[in-house]
Amino acid sequence: MASRLNPYLVFEGDARQAMEFYKEVFGGTLSLNTYGEIGGRSGAADADKIMHGMLESPSGFTLMGADTPPGEDYRRGNAYSISLSGDDEAELRGYWEQLSAGGSVSVPLEKQMWGDVFGMCTDRFGVAWMVNITERQG
Questions:
Q1: Which of 22, 34, 72, 117 is the most exposed place for a label (fewest CB within 10 A)?
Q2: CATH code of residue 128
Q3: How many Cβ atoms from other residues are within 10 Å of residue 82's Cβ?
Q4: Which domain of life is it from (predicted)?
């Protein structure tokens, strides 16, 4: 198996809702495991929180996420963005519409000086996204 690099997002108790939202956006297969299912250090209050979630989309995207582990402090960082890029304009615009709905747009999805259509948004779960649409060649 080849090595892969996948984004892994950490949430403050709403990982289930976020991962289900991303499944609506990207499609695919979502698996969710709770702290209660694995036993160990979680109490009844944390039993339904997500210990590990993984979404694998038909386009080959893999997105992982979890709730902050019980007993640890949540820290939302802005040191990351998830980038979606390609030349399938309809597909990428569809992702953009869903991801930006209910969130905030910092750069509107429009033609940029380098020639591509590009935009940046933060979804309703606080995750930053960049979408870059290139022209199809040929």
A1: 72
A2: 3.30.720.110
A3: 16
A4: Bacteria
